[in-house]
Amino acid sequence: MEYRLRVAQKDFSVEVEVNEGLHLNFMLGDKKYVVDYTVISDSYIHMKVENGIRSGNVNAFLADGPDGKTIVINGRSYMVQDHDCLAQVVQKGRRPNLPDKITPPMPAVVVSIPVTIGDRVKKGQAVIVVSAMKMETTLCAPFDGTVVKINAGVNDKVAPGQILVEIEKDE
Amino acid sequence: MEYRLRVAQKDFSVEVEVNEGLHLNFMLGDKKYVVDYTVISDSYIHMKVENGIRSGNVNAFLADGPDGKTIVINGRSYMVQDHDCLAQVVQKGRRPNLPDKITPPMPAVVVSIPVTIGDRVKKGQAVIVVSAMKMETTLCAPFDGTVVKINAGVNDKVAPGQILVEIEKDE
Amino acid sequence: MFKKILVANRGEIALRVMRTCQEMGIACVAVYSDADQKALHVLRADQAIYLGASEPAASYLDIDKIIAAAKDSGAEAIHPGYGFLSENAGLARRCEEEGLVFIGPPSRVIQNLGDKTVAREIMRGSGVPIISGMVRAESVLQILTEEAGRIGYPVLIKAAAGGGGKGMRVVHTENELADACRQAASEAAAAFGNDAIYLEKYLKRPRHIEFQILADSHGNIVHLLERECSIQRRYQKVIEETPSPAVTPDLRAAMGKSAVDAARASGYVNAGTVEFLLDADGKYYFMEVNTRLQVEHPITEMITGIDIVRQQIRIAAGEPLGFTQSDVTGRGHAIECRIYGEDPENGFMPSPGKITYLQEPSGPGIRNDCGIYAGFDVPVEYDPILSKLIVWAADRNQAISRMKNALSQYVILGIKTPVAFLIDVLASEPFQEGKTYTDFIATHFEGWRQKTDEADLAVLAYIIDEIAGSRRPKAHNKKITGQATPWQTIGNWRL
Amino acid sequence: MFKKILVANRGEIALRVMRTCQEMGIACVAVYSDADQKALHVLRADQAIYLGASEPAASYLDIDKIIAAAKDSGAEAIHPGYGFLSENAGLARRCEEEGLVFIGPPSRVIQNLGDKTVAREIMRGSGVPIISGMVRAESVLQILTEEAGRIGYPVLIKAAAGGGGKGMRVVHTENELADACRQAASEAAAAFGNDAIYLEKYLKRPRHIEFQILADSHGNIVHLLERECSIQRRYQKVIEETPSPAVTPDLRAAMGKSAVDAARASGYVNAGTVEFLLDADGKYYFMEVNTRLQVEHPITEMITGIDIVRQQIRIAAGEPLGFTQSDVTGRGHAIECRIYGEDPENGFMPSPGKITYLQEPSGPGIRNDCGIYAGFDVPVEYDPILSKLIVWAADRNQAISRMKNALSQYVILGIKTPVAFLIDVLASEPFQEGKTYTDFIATHFEGWRQKTDEADLAVLAYIIDEIAGSRRPKAHNKKITGQATPWQTIGNWRL
Predict the structure, then answer these.
(1) pLDDT mean over D193-207
(2) Residue extent(s) of CATH 2.40.50.100 domains in chain A
(3) Helix (H) or strand (E) run with residue C368 in it
(4) What is the pLDDT of residue D97?
(5) CB atoms within 10 A of CB A138
(6) Per-residue model confidence as pLDDT tens digits over D4-23
(7) Which of A77, A133, A155 is closest, CB to CB, to C383?
(8) Is the pLDDT of residue A121 over 50?
(9) Do chains B and A touch (3 or more CB pairs under 8 A)?
(10) Which three-class secondary structure state does DSSP give residue B23?
(11) pLDDT of the residue at B53
(12) Does the N-terminal or the C-terminal CB of chain B have fewer CB atoms within 10 Å?
């Protein structure tokens, strides 16, 4: 069967052939891998990987996320996404990139809101300050406009994707 | 509600009263305990225990076994059994004490069987030798008799409860 | 000796302090906020007292609540850890007033050394080299301009009440000065409630070298050798090591003496750290005294064999040091990597959240001072330090190898960490050659991205996980764990 | 230096060796049997080679298979660990013949020192104190009786090829001698395939004191101070420490010199251990030389700062030691507790089985050399060592406290361990006073049962677990994990 995956902005098209037991053949583009694997725990897969040139042990640790699996190998962490799911995500608009919206870049707590409803703001003007782990981040107006809605209060916990301040763009 | 439990050959009769949240009152005999608990993981319960005299934090780690739960607290390991289940176990004959049967005291591998079917054996005579983790244990005839059945071969893995050699007692 | 100590902190440092207390037979009282109900320092304490809401002001920074917790629990002393109230003269003073022992220097010393211009004055008076700069804070632009001319550009604007890089600005020409001073003062006002600023000479490519000192209440003062902490991001230390590759025995003796002089001049008692900048010519300048246990104290413990927390407690109890400078010797080399919850590919942005899997490194010469566990939800409200990985080895090269191996064994799933970044820093030529200056990350690792030459392996693992069938609990089931109440499972009861 | 080393062992010691190899940039080849397919040493190796069935004879003891694995994988050297083939002159000889480097002494040295009577002869010739006893093995009862009379009762019967207590008997009077010799010879024959026995003077309440030595191939020999290993059960060490509370500086110097003399007399190269008995009068007697890495080597590493495995590899590669006796100094105190899979309430019976939960102790001065993980099935076929918990602290009292705390944090569920027993030993008065003799456990802890004064807490935890609802996976589901094949989950596929 075939998988189409994306890691670090790179697309992988993978052909997999299942042999007896826990033994798999992979074709990644023109590279061939033969892998024996052992499931050590729900989060830990041990692989014996041969690619014709060299062979070796690989320990992979996995966690599920909303957008794919996080996989840690040799201290490095990869976000691996399935192409089909990626497409769905974009269609459904789940977690889209929101440069025009005022939303925190990480889970945070609201520190201050230097604007109120009805205020006219200039592009780049601070509209809300959030803090995460002692680091403050100021979110600014993406364009000139008027504050029409404020969806958070000081000390509220907020998350990426949540629109904190809504601004109606000047025509 | 009431629990009847056994730990280290001692019986405990416990009255439990559930308060709001994760707050419990216990009566162990004439001792009263007030406990707040937090479930940290499937195997780990954190308790804040007050018994009128002193209060303190207790970390308890739990595993299920066929006869009860093993509970580790402050480096010590307790086998806690439910009285009702204990009764059932005895009735059903699961894991009874088998001083008269030839069964290994721990999971082991058979090293040698110095008797064959039909042999007459004396009480205390070696009938099978097993080994676990480099320690050899010789199992002996519990009474004078005749070997009628041998249920294991050399290098077999054997477990407590399994009858390795059957001996018909002399009348 | 004390029978019970309250640890007014959280996370790895609270655990660190509690470990030594428990080894000394001293009971430990932890304190916690809403966010920390299941924190490791709460689980491991002998007793834990709830302070209040998650905001630091309502819990870990609330002096009244902490004093009350100490009194209620019968603690005789308070250990403040680092951060939070550790350098707050107010807590030390309250302890003095309430008959509690503050495990740290006297409030007066904290206050003096906390004001950088006062600290500079003290040092100047006792012959500790200070960087050329202003003696006191100033707000009149004309005077600032004159001072800058006297010191010579480039100059550094610093907040008198400051720390952590807030209110700091480098100014290269007189043109930039006015704007920079205004910005710095306003940043300082916002951060510390105090807009006082001053100027000092800006050193190019300095190293951050600090000396651990111990001073007892009988006038004995020793230093425990140096630590180099030049690898920093956003003015926060990331990797520390001892000995410094730049410090010769002669320089060590001179700087160590200055550190002890600084402690003596300020009337220091307990553990502290005298921070210096070391320039390319081997000249060093006093920066400040940190009047608390440092984050990076373990590397000093590793090479000297001295438990600094034990010494803090002994000193606070009035005991004499019991050893002299000549008894202090360093053996081998130690390195610490701070494991923050942050994303090094994205400007070291904070990354709070639930830890879903944790594999801690272990082995000879490895110490992991860790405040998290699998299942713990790292709060958004506090410092991002998850743990500190410390290694010791016979020499610097071996310590670097050991650290790289330990890091590559470190698995933290659920949030982002700088593990891969740290491996690359340790493996880099400038680090291996000891070319460690405070601009190291900006110079060599700006815009760092993880290498992807092993991405193939991640792809293989992904597919095997699909095929073998992940049995990991789904995120939406998570809430059940730890939230079960008797009423949810009443079916199990026998009434 | 080698590029690849095969580690011919399993469990914690294979991991220990691999850690140093990986830090040295040397690739590691693990070997394994059926029972060890998921063992930690297999998971952590750079490469792993299957040997055969679980019985040691078909895998870890099969010299041909191990030589073949080394050749197939391109390993240049073999590290034997301890146990299995580590003191087998045959493996060392095969390596010599096949052009592989055996990381240990030359085969001739292993052979000579492996025969206790030959070893005694070597030591006698070089002035190392030996206990009065027979020069060679003997089977004629009359000669044995005469020798016993000459030595003086009580005498100890020992197997010439022996170790681990097999074939040993204490004889107090001439009446008992004949029977005891017969039993000992038959036990020795069964255990070692060699019924040769000899007699020596039996010492009452001796201490077991051993010296670690390092000898390079250029004639440099040093010792790395002593270890005391008197706390034993069934002739197996349970707790080891260094320095010994009984060894004075003068005695240390004398015994250290004897250890180096012993190494020189036997032509020793690589790491080894010279074991002595120390009697109540401060007299010491050579017992034997262990021609391998000892289980308890970490405590020496902790106090000397020397990585013994690194030295073994360097010596095997022909490098000179690079330091002398005066460079070797001990700092502080280290203790090791062996964590066996065994039941101390039931004659220390083995307890193999699946580990369902594991919490390893951590913190300053704590090292846990561990070969297990949660989910691992500890095999019935091998040595019961699960891990070795090692602590370092500034002095013996602090080390004892640290070890007690570390043990009480150590949670291993699924099989029985001696954790509670070890805590009681460390807390006992005779241990704390350093009254550690080889009969310690028999004298003070015969028939030990765990205290039950905290059984109430276990009762509370049981009931809370019932109420909160255990969500632990049931035992009968266990088989699925790790056994899933693509065919079981084919529904997930996209073809």
Answers:
(1) 89
(2) 108-169
(3) strand C366-370
(4) 97
(5) 13
(6) 999 999 999 999 999 999 99
(7) A133
(8) yes
(9) no
(10) strand
(11) 74
(12) C
pLDDT digits (tens, 9 = 90+) for B8-40: 889 999 999 987 777 899 999 889 999 999 999
Contact with chain D for residue C469, Cβ under 8 A: yes
- Which residues in chain A touch residue C338, judged by CB atoms under 8 angstroms apart? none
**Per mean pLDDT, which range of A137-141, C140-144, D5-9, D490-494 is the poorest?**
D490-494
Give the HSE-up count for residue D107: Cα atoms under 13 Å, Cβ half-sphere.
14
Residue type, C330: G
Mark yes or no for CB contact C341/A133 under 8 Å.
yes
Q: Which own/partner pairs from D236-240 qualify as long-range (CB within 8 Å, at least 24 positions apart)?
A: D236/D164, D236/D165, D237/D208, D237/D295, D237/D296, D237/D338, D238/D337, D238/D338, D238/D340, D238/D418, D238/D422, D238/D425, D238/D441, D239/D335, D239/D336, D239/D337, D239/D338, D239/D422, D239/D425, D239/D426, D240/D296, D240/D299, D240/D335, D240/D336
Question: DSSP letter at C111?
Answer: H
Residue C470, pLDDT score? 63
Query: Mind telling me how many Å the CA of D47 is from chain A's nearest CA?
Result: 5
pLDDT at position C163, please?
Answer: 67
List every span in chain B annotated with CATH 3.30.700.30.
2-92
**Active site members of D:** 292
Whether B26 has its CB under 8 Å from any CB of chain D: the answer is: yes
Residue entry with tokens 């566990």: C373
| Complex ipTM tops 0.85 | yes
CA distances from D236 to D114, D166, D239, D387 (A): 18, 11, 10, 15
Output C476 or C444, whichever has higher pLDDT: C444
Give the CATH class of A2-92: alpha beta
d(CA A46, CA C358): 16
Single-letter code of the amino acid located at A49: V
CATH assignment of B108-169, among 2.40.50.100, 3.40.50.300, 3.30.379.10, 2.40.10.120: 2.40.50.100
Chosen for mutation from D23, D474, D480 (greatest number of chain C CBs closer than 10 Å) is D23
Residue D123 makes CB contacts below 8 A (sequence gap 6+) with D130, D262, D265, D286
Buried b (16+ CB within 10 A) or exposed e, B58-81: bbbbbbbeeebbbbbbebbbbebb
- In three-state secondary structure terms, C410 is coil
CA gyration radius for chain B?
A: 23
Residues of chain D above pLDDT 90, percent: 82
One DSSP character per residue, C308-349 reads: HHHHHHHHHTT------GGG----SEEEEEEEESEEGGGTTE
By mean pLDDT, which of A17-21, A49-53, C363-367, D234-238 is the weakest? A17-21
Do the beta carbons of residue B58 and residue D457 sit within 8 Å?
yes
Average pLDDT estimate for A40-63 = 91
Give me the residue label for tokens 């009577």.
D117
The average confidence (pLDDT) of chain D is 92
Residue (of C448, C130, C127) closest to C261 by Cα position:
C127
Please give the pLDDT value at position B29.
86
C158 or D388, which is more confident: D388
- Tell which phi-psi region holds residue D149, choosing left (phi > 0), alpha (psi between -120 and 50) or beta: alpha
CB contact under 8 A, B62 and D465: yes
Q: Residue D180, CB half-sphere, CA atoms under 13 Å: how many? A: 21
| Pairwise pLDDT comparison (D466 vs B94), residue with the higher score | D466
